[in-house]
Write a structure and sequence with these properties.
The chain contains two helices and no strands. By secondary structure, the protein is mainly alpha-helical.
Length: 100
């Protein structure tokens, strides 16, 4: 089964690309190292606060996906058990018919 990517994955990929691109741009900028380090430090603090703000929402979404997956798996398990019971009953009926 092929996995389909949605908007959340696209957004996360763009965020990672922007972060990496910004870091490379800062490191290769034509200015003094101290200025670059200060900018990088400020940028990393901004990223850290941004992640801290968005982490609870991300965690909530992951929890929701896990709950949905558990529900789907639980439903599949019930369907499989029901079908196994049906097959057992059919087998018993076949055995009873052969004995009679």
């Amino acid at each position: 089964m092929r996995r389909r990517f949605g908007y959340e994955e696209l957004g996360f990929g763009i965020l990672i690309g922007l972060t990496v691109g910004s870091l490379i741009g800062i490191l290769y900028a034509p200015q003094e190292g101290s200025k670059s380090r200060n900018q990088l430090n400020k940028y990393l603090k901004d990223v850290q606060s941004s992640v801290a703000e968005t982490w609870p929402d991300f965690q909530y979404k992951v929890d929701q996906v896990l709950l949905k997956a558990q529900a789907i798996l639980g439903l599949q398990k019930k369907i499989i058990r029901r079908r196994l019971d049906e097959l057992k009953n059919e087998l018993k009926n076949i055995e009873l018919n052969q004995v009679s």
